[in-house]
Amino acid sequence: MSMRAMEATLPRGLFRARSVAWAFSPAMSTERLILLCSLFFTVFSNMAFWHAAVENPLQQWRLALSLLVVVTTLHALLLGLVVSRWNAKPVLTGLLLVTALASHYMNAYGVYLDADMLRNVLHTDSKESSELLSVRLLIPLLLSLLPIALLWRVRLQPRSWRRALGMRAGFLLVVVLVGAGGVQLAARDITSMIRNHHEIRYLVTPANYLVSLVNVLLSSPPGPKPALLPIGMDASQKPRAEGSKPRLLVLVVGETARAQNWGLNGYARQTTPELSQIEGLVNFPHVTSCGSSTEVSLPCMFSSYGRKDYDEDKIRSHQSLLHVLDHAGIATLWRDNQSGCKGVCDGLPTQRLEDEQDAGLCNGKRCVDEILLKDLQVQISPGNGDRVVVLHQLGNHGPNYYERYPARFRRFTPTCENPELGQCARQEIINSYDNALLYTDHFLAATIGFLKAQKDYETALVYVSDHGESLGEKGLFLHGVPYAIAPQEQIHVPMVMWFSPGFTSDARLDMQCLRNESAKSLSHDNLFSSLLGLMEVVTPEYQRSDDLFAVCRKSG
């Protein structure tokens, strides 16, 4: 239909309004649109970056100008490689929305969007993600509507494919040259920043999550997950005296518990009142985690490679401690009240309990951690040998600390009951967090009580948290800061152990020696060989130097 025919079929007023609107729709090249969007991202979506990079803009104006050019050209380069006239509007619309959300969470919680954090985001289940939703999230989304509306008013100029290709190549070349020139404006300052604060690149949005997404996809491409490479296939257990009871070891993997708030470590508050009354309990006050997030720590702490010679590809592609125990003939079971085992228990017996329907322990959204003890007695009915059971807690998973414990554990008040932690007083956040620790204390004491009641096993418990948590220190909340700069609050974790008298005797443990060893600096790297040694598993994967029990094991 011709324009004249359309005009004849439309009401005159409507057609006039349409004509006026069209008159205010600018025509531009795709490259100019990319440049404008890049500048928008640099100026309006990078508050966290600017706050970290330029402390005094008036005195550091040369650095600020240099970074403005560099960051803008970086975004222009990235967008220039993927945005065309045909996909520009939907792609840029998506980036505007995602960037608004990313900037909000970075500003609210002080997070860095590196590959590990993005992997956390991609592996977050609906329950976890729903806890991060709030009314305040509407503000950045609503603010993003204006640039999106302007974006869709733009008319992109058509070109032949040859001309479009030539223009794009020229654009990318100019972008690279201008970016290089921008670096030269403050080369010394930028070099120093990169050398001393290289993690700051994870604050440049949306480049941070775009590059991190590529890294995640390259390390874990879509499609069927390849089978884990075997380790410890020749593992076996040392023979024990005839008539010895089988051993039952319960390993409790904590969630987001930090050592600074652990009562047994000398915290001003008694957050571990029940554990402090348990005879024979050994506390380890100086333990460092493998990572600052579950996504990193969980595979790492169960791996033979560990943090010492950290190799993510090797850790994620090989079997874990549990598989080695299985090769040795020790029955394993993973019971989960969180977001899964991150590959640690692949191919082994697993129970997901977070969706259980128990009126006393579940509220329709989440279950408190005592769900991990429900029907456990049935699962460990005596068999032909030793057992290792892993209980994966929900623990202190944020930001909704107030939902991690039954009402009777709300002892420290007032509490923060808002997922936007920045809207609560810091003491309210700490109160909620400490209440959740009180419940972990109760849960561990209840688990030990369960083990004491076992007549068919010699029993033991090992508890260690996967990582810690920031509660407002240095303006940070939650966890997941890149490991190289992660604060102690995120990587210093509690660990306790308890052994029944029969287990102690059977494993020939010198408990006084172990209490002495508990004062030493340890890490998740000790877990793999320590548990193999505790269960008397023989395999080349075992490293005596990492076995914290080795020096306390009596000969015989």
Describe this structure in words.
The protein has 556 residues and is of the alpha/beta class. The chain contains 22 helices and 14 strands. The N and C termini lie far apart (96 Å). The strands form four sheets. Strands 7-6-8-4-9-12-5-13 form an eight-stranded mixed β-sheet, with helices on both faces. The model has no long low-confidence stretch (mean pLDDT 90). Helix content is 43%, strand content 11%. Helix 3 (30-44) packs parallel to helix 6 and helix 7 (115-122) crosses helix 13 (207-219). Strand 10 and strand 11 form a beta hairpin.
Helical residue percent band: 40-55%
Query: How large, in whole angstroms, is the Cα Rg?
Result: 28 Å
Strand order of the largest sheet: 7-6-8-4-9-12-5-13
Query: Care to count the β-strands?
Result: 14
Share of β-strand residues = 5-15%
Instruction: Give unreliable regions as ranges.
Output: none
Structural class: alpha/beta
Main sheet, how many strands, which sense, barrel? 8 strands, mixed
Based on Cα principal axes, name the global outline.
Answer: elongated
Count of helices?
Answer: 22
Task: Report mean pLDDT, rounded to a whole number.
Answer: 90
